[in-house]
């Protein structure tokens, strides 16, 4: 059958908000280019949105508009359902119903896949349909395709990403203006970078969802968000951002997935999201504002980095349409000939455990407010030594630089790599010292070399 005779792929959109509207616009604007790439047309035939008036304003007469998403799923002419509703609730039900109806699915829903991906991929495999989700991680950056296909020759050693634009904007502003978190959050909300309820962003949950998906593709393990360690940026102070800068580091909220090896044997996967000190000389440390970036370390390729807009109407639509083109190319192929959902064949998934945070190995930045008297530093370094923690650098601030009081000072310590569990014990012991005058600030540090 010639390219001209292949029937177009018919798409049903569930939700036509920011990303749905962008998807419709990009498909309309670039339809000829997309047809040449896909080998057949891709048409949005139906749109479901509770706000039918708004939906009709976007699509005009180009597609049928309905209020009921299940009408899209029930239409036998629809080949692909694009889920852009978000969340875990109705979105999960609709995705599973679309799969049961034999529809291929494209989704931008990282929360859904991070929590329920194993169930969704199993259902899709049983039905022989594709589930594509490039838009679920880092918006317009094709990081899923890079991990799943472009780097398939490599044993991935680690992935580290700035994958939430809201928190990166806040951290950039805190650094540039020397302001504390609460002040910058209000400004981010005023400018539209942060939601009215920014909890998922600022507590690290959104980034952790994305890191969970990347870990599954990088290492061939099931999606296991419940085992991820998640910390946000709400407790970060401008003081630590300033000190980090003086030491040659920037603080970024990173989603990290890493193989951990002991004596040359892989013992598990680290899956964690938290504020991290990164050396300024790394490209990723200089990613500012609402931009995203992901670094991947592979044994053959070395370090690669992917940078771009992690959100927004057309950047995210770019990823949705790329998924639609993939489906259009492979829609008539046997399921066994398609790229596996999580890069590895389903019967070859790894049973490597996600390690508890106590077993994670990293280096640390510590800031202790201490009494400015003899013997304090020796006591603290002794406690670290008892836990087998070696020190990379120690800086003691002048007392008047800290508070204007001559009887206390800030002590900054950078450590070499150690297990989190050992650091927990050391911090508890140091905190109990009468000469430690405030809660100890502890941040993880990654060289990303």
Q: What proportion of the residues form beta strands (DSSP E)?
A: 15-25%
CATH class type of the largest domain: Alpha Beta
Number of helices, where a helix is a run of at least 4 consecutive DSSP H or I residues: 16
N-C termini distance: 51 Å
Derived from helix and strand composition plus strand pairing, the structural class reads: alpha/beta
Average pLDDT taken over every residue: 95
Helix content percent band = 25-40%
User: Which homologous superfamily in CATH is the superfamily of the largest domain?
Assistant: NAD(P)-binding Rossmann-like Domain
CATH architecture title of the largest domain: 3-Layer(aba) Sandwich
């Amino acid at each position: 059958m010639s390219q001209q005779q292949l029937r177009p792929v018919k798409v049903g959109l569930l939700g036509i908000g920011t990303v749905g509207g962008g998807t419709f616009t990009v498909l309309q604007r670039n339809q000829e280019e997309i047809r040449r790439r896909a080998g057949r047309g891709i048409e949005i035939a139906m749109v479901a949105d509770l706000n039918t008036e708004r939906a009709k304003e976007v699509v005009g007469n180009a597609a049928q508009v309905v209020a009921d998403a299940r009408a899209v799923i029930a239409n036998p002419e629809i080949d692909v359902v694009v889920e852009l509703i978000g969340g875990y609730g109705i979105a999960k039900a609709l995705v599973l119903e679309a799969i049961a109806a034999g529809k291929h699915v494209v989704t931008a829903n990282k929360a859904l896949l991070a929590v329920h991906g194993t169930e969704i991929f199993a259902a899709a495999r049983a039905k022989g349909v594709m589930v594509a989700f490039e838009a679920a991680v880092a918006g317009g950056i094709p990081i899923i395709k890079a991990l799943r296909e472009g780097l398939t020759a490599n044993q991935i050693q680690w992935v580290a990403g700035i994958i939430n634009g809201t928190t990166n904007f806040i951290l950039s502003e805190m650094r540039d203006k020397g302001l504390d978190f609460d002040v910058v959050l209000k400004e981010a909300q005023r400018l539209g970078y942060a939601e009215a309820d920014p909890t998922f962003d600022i507590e690290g949950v959104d980034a952790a969802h994305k890191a969970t998906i990347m870990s599954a593709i990088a290492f061939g393990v099931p999606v296991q968000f419940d085992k991820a360690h998640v910390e946000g940026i709400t407790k970060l102070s401008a003081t630590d951002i300033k000190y980090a800068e003086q030491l040659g580091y920037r603080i970024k909220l990173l989603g990290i997935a890493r193989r951990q090896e002991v004596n040359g044997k892989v013992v598990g996967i680290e899956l964690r999201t938290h504020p991290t000190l990164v050396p300024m000389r790394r490209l990723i440390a200089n990613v500012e504002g609402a931009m995203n970036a992901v670094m991947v370390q592979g044994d053959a390729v070395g370090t690669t980095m992917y940078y771009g807009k992690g959100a927004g109407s057309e950047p995210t639509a770019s990823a949705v349409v790329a998924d639609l083109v993939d489906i259009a190319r492979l829609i008539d192929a046997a399921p066994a000939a398609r790229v596996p959902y999580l890069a590895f064949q389903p019967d070859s998934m790894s049973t490597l455990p996600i390690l508890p945070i106590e077993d994670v190995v990293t280096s640390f930045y510590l800031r202790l407010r201490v009494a400015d008297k003899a013997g304090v530093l020796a006591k603290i370094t002794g406690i670290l030594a008892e836990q087998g923690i070696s020190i990379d650098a120690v800086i003691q601030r002048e007392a008047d630089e800290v508070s204007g009081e001559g009887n206390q000072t800030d002590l900054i310590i950078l450590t070499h790599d150690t297990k989190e569990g050992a650091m927990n014990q050391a911090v508890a012991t140091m905190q109990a010292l009468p000469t430690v005058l405030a809660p100890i600030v502890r941040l993880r540090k990654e060289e990303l070399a």
